[in-house]
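User: ok so my PI wants both of these folded by tonight, can you help

Assistant: No problem, let's get them done. Here's the first:
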Amino acid sequence: MSPVVLCRAHPSLALIKYWGKSDSRRNLPATPSLAVTLAGVHTETRVWPADADSVVLDGVEQSAERYAPFFAALRRRLASRQCFRAESTNSFPTAAGLASSSSGFAALAAACVGAAGRELPARELSALARLGSASAARSLFGGFTLLPARARAARQLFPEEHWPELRVLIAVASGEAKPFASRQAMEATRRSSPFYRAWLASAGRLLAGAMSALERRDLEKLGELARLSYSRMHAALLAADPPVLYWLPATVALIRECAALRREGIGAWETIDAGPQVKVLCLAADAPKVAARLQQAAGVRTIECRPGPAPAIRVEGE
C-alpha cells in the first residue's frame, strides 16, 4: 500500500504586498513582498501516489488545469513520471482573501515530495510552490519572509521567535469566495489601471523601511508602511477597467475602528489582501481589547494568530 503523507502549512500574510506578475507563464512576482507566516490558521493536505493527478479541496474536486503546471514542474524536478492524489482542508475560509492558496500550495509541494520518498531543500520547495501561487513560496518558511520581485523562491528573514509579542487578528468580514480570482484581478490591473506603474514603483520604495521596522520590532512604523502598501494596491485595483472592488461595508467599518483605536493610543494597524477580510497587527497585551472592538464595530468574528512555523510533514501510520 502506498504511503499517505500529511502536511500542515500556514498561510503567509503579506505586509508589503505582492500584486502583479513580471512573467505570467513562470508566475514570477512583479513586486517584492514582505510577509509573516501565521500560526492559528492552517491547511492540511494528504497526498499519496496515484495513476493520475487530482486535487480535492474542502470536499470539492478541483480543476486539473489549475494544478497542471505545478505537477508538471514537480515531475521534472523529481525526474519521475509519478502522479499524485491530494485531499486538502482549510481551517479558515477558502478563496476569500485569507491567503489560502499560499498554505495550500506550500502543503501540496511538501506532501508530494514526501509521498515520492524524496527530500528537497526548502528553497527548492519554495520555487515549486510558487508555480501554483507566488505567495506560497513564502509559506515554505516560518516567521518573517521576503519574496523579491522576479524571484523564483522566497527566503526567511527572521524566525517566528524574532517577535513573540506580535499578534495578527483576522477579522472575517465574509466567509464567501471572493468575486474575482487574484490572477484575474492582477491581469485586469496590469492591463487597464493607470495607477499600475506607480504601484510597482511604490512597492519597491516601501520595502526597505518595512524591513528595517521589522528588524527593530517597531510596530508603529511597520504598521504605517503596511497600511500604505494595501491602500495603494487597492487604489490600483479600483482604477482598473472595470473596477475591481473586494471591500464590503464591514471592511470599511473595521478600517475606521482601527483608526479610532490608534487615536486612543492603541496600536492596531490593518492590512487587506485581495478580499474583504481585514487583518490587524497589534501586540499581545492589546489583542483582547482590539478583538472586542473589532467584533463590536462590524459584527465579525476574529481569529488570533501569531508568527508561525514552516510546514510540518509526517507519514500517516508511523
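One down. Here's the second:
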Amino acid sequence: MSNNKTTWNIDPAHSAVNFKIKHLGIANVNGTFDKFAGNVETENDDFNNAAVHFEIDADSINTRNAARDNHLKSPFLFNTEKYPKLVFDGRLQKEGDAYQLAGELTIGSTMRSIVLATELTGSGQGMHNDTRAGFEVEGKINRKDYGLTWNIATEAGSFVVGEEVKLHFDVELIKVA
C-alpha cells in the first residue's frame, strides 16, 4: 500500500445514472440523467475509504417524454435554471466483499446524508492500456426530503407521483496515469 493518492475519473461513455419512481401508485416511470461527471480518489488498491465526488447536470433529465421532462426541470420540481447541478460528496467503505457509499447529496438548496449499496463489479485493463474499475450503486431517497413536493391527488385517492425514488448507477472508472 502506497501513500500516494490515485485519481479515477468516471467514463461517461460506459456509465449510466438511472432512477425510477411510481406513477399513480401503479407502475414505475424510468428515467436517466444523460450528463454527469465525477472522480474517485483512492489511497490503496481496494477503494476502501475512497473519496467520491459526483455531479449531475439536472437539465439532462430524460424520461423519454418531453412534456414530463420540461415539468421536471421547472420551478415546480428541480428548478434547473436556479439549481443546475445535483452534487454528491462521500466515501466508499468496504464491508466484507461489498462497499457502502455514504455521503451528502445536494438537490436544489437541500443537502441530506444518504447511504448507497455499492458493488465492485470488476477491474482490469482497457483497450488503450488504461486501468479501469466498475461499480454498481443502488439505493433510494424520498424526493420530499429534497423539497421536491409537487403532486396531484387522483380521484381514486392515490397520487400521480410517488415519494420514493429508486436509484441505480453503473459506473466505470478510468485510472488517471
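The mean pLDDT is 88. The chain has one domain: 6-175. Good luck tonight!
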